[in-house]
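Appendix B, example 12.
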Amino acid sequence: MQYEIKQKEKFRFVEEGTGEPLILLHGLFGALSNFSGLIEYFRSHNRVIVPLLPLLDMDILHTSVGGLAKYVNRFLETLDLRAVHLLGNSLGGHVALVHTLKNPERVKSLILTGSSGLFENGMGDSYPRRGDYEYIKNKTALTFYDPAVATKELVDEVYSITNNRLKVIKIIALAKSAIRNNLGEELNQISKPTLLIWGNNDTITPPFVGHEFNKLIPNSELHFIDKCGHAPMMEVPDEFNKILHGFLNKLQHP
């Protein structure tokens, strides 16, 4: 699906539908395409907003989880968004967690899927091997239970990013920032209703990470999806949307 990209001040974003705001934060190699199944389903129920996170466009000093969390906060302020349902995948989940810890007043609920913040397997020590298409293809496929989800288009996107030296430096900076920024000690401060949706076959943030988040975040519920990797909203959108819709309905009609 092609979506119109809107702009307000320096922020670029996609916005579809009306209702309570559902904000979607993508991960390190994320793109709008990751969320098309979610956008299509929830635009009938919510005001779905996807900020285009400037992962590789911030100056190196602010290329960190904390820098991105500040960016998200300024974005919510600029659009005057309140009582948002904040959803993040992978690094986007980590950013959503940091934002919720620092600015809880704008958040109504938190939804994490394959989130970093406690533990994650990186792309491996030898990453990134520039110019090795086959290597990038195999690494991208590891994100999913079904390697076919790693389409040529997706692999090409990751490959082009890893072939740009400055972008690679920023990816490494973000990945290191995510590992350093471990939230284990702080998660008990999150009081917002939290939904955790995890792939049973996630190799990057394995199932035990979902269990650990569930244990540490007081008001949280955990759902596993079988035959599913690190990006459930991409790999099994129907099942993901059903779980999320049930959670959001419960908040509206307790």
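The chain has a mean pLDDT of 92. The longest helix spans residues 165-180.
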